[in-house]
Amino acid sequence: MKSLNRFVWTLGAMAVFMAGALPGADAAQSSPSNPKPTYKRKVSNTAFAAKRKSYVRLPAKPSFGLLAGLHSAPDELALKSSVALVVDQDTQEILFSKNEQAVLPIASLTKLMTGLIISEAQLPMDEIVTITQADVDIEKRSSSRLKVGTQLSRRELLHLAMMASENRAASALGRTYPGGLPAFVELMNAKARMLGMNDTSYVEPTGLSSKNQSSAQDLALLVNVASQDPTLREFSTSTGYQVAVGKRKLQFSNTNRLVRNPTWDIGLQKTGYISEAGQCLVMQARVSGRKLIMVFLDSAGKLSRLGDAERVRRWIESIPAKIPLTGLQVEQILAAN
Asked: Is 108 a catalytic residue?
């Protein structure tokens, strides 16, 4: 009998323990007509659904190139960029072209002209420049790690603009140019005309405006000149850069990961993106012993512009090297004709 009583007592204790441990037990006891507690579960599902809704992304605006139907143009390399141009820098021979005359927004490729103007101006590069509210992007509302009030040298700002495509850095460079931003933009357009970039127009120094437009032909001219500037070569191809902002140190990385690829020999590069322009890339690089200028505009995916550069490199490497003719061979060819 004692064993039976102990067994019953144990079962009762377990029942009490389980009733108190189960979630929703209190709600079930207070509502006999609803033996299965579901209130907490419904709240959880609702909260989860609301949380998921907050992460829904709206589709990006179609690029100007897509709207113009440029992506439908076929090419033998099956590039993802709707516009492409590859030029031998030494001979000026066009090796590959696709919609090279199309005029499109160029996004942060704009900063290549911004950098060229600043580098050639011989301004004091150690002069401290302050980021102000005027440098905050109100058009695209892009973010920046350079908060209003940040103070950096002109050299540091140029480095960040060329390497990390820092918009506030580029804005501050143009704003603090002698004569202010209007004078700087006017100089950008004057330099474009001087270089023969007749399809190019600039309205601001960052590339956030879709009114900054150019063609692949024009951009090849710009890359040809900019690649001869040692400062722009160094800053645009550095893999990383650290600046001191107050008591903090900020580490920035290059927006083009090809500069960290040891199989590439890149002399100058610049990336760019806004939805109207698509993914953009210009480079000066040595491939198979040839100095090439590459321009890719309106690429369809974030990594596809780099993929296009890789496709072009493999294609160039597959072309047999031209062996210079000897004097005797030239005489024989002339005699035969």
From this structure: yes
Q: Which of 63, 119, 165, 209 is catalytic?
A: 165
Lowest mean pLDDT among 22-31, 115-124, 211-220, 265-274: 22-31
Is 111 annotated as catalytic? yes
Give the whole-number percent of the chain exceeding pLDDT 90.
74
Structural tokens at position 139: 């058009």
β-bridge pairing 278-287 and 290-299: antiparallel
Q: Catalytic: which of 80, 111, 191, 270?
A: 111
Assessment of whether the complete model's pTM goes beyond 0.85? no
Does residue 150 contact residue 157 with C-beta atoms inside 8 Å? no
Catalytic residue among 108, 171, 209, 210: 108
22-49 burial string, b = 16+ CB within 10 Å, else e? eeeeeebeeeeeeeebeeeeeeeeeeee
Which residue from 164, 169, 216, 207 is spatially nearest to 188, judged by alpha carbons? 207
CA distance 76 to 96: 10
Quick check: helix, strand or coil at residue 204?
coil
- Look at residues 270, 280, 283 and name the one whose alpha carbon lies nearest to residue 83: 280
What are the structure tokens assigned to 187, written together?
A: 């100089």
- Domains of the chain, each with CATH number or no CATH: 64-318 (3.40.710.10)
**Quick one: DSSP state of residue 268?**
E
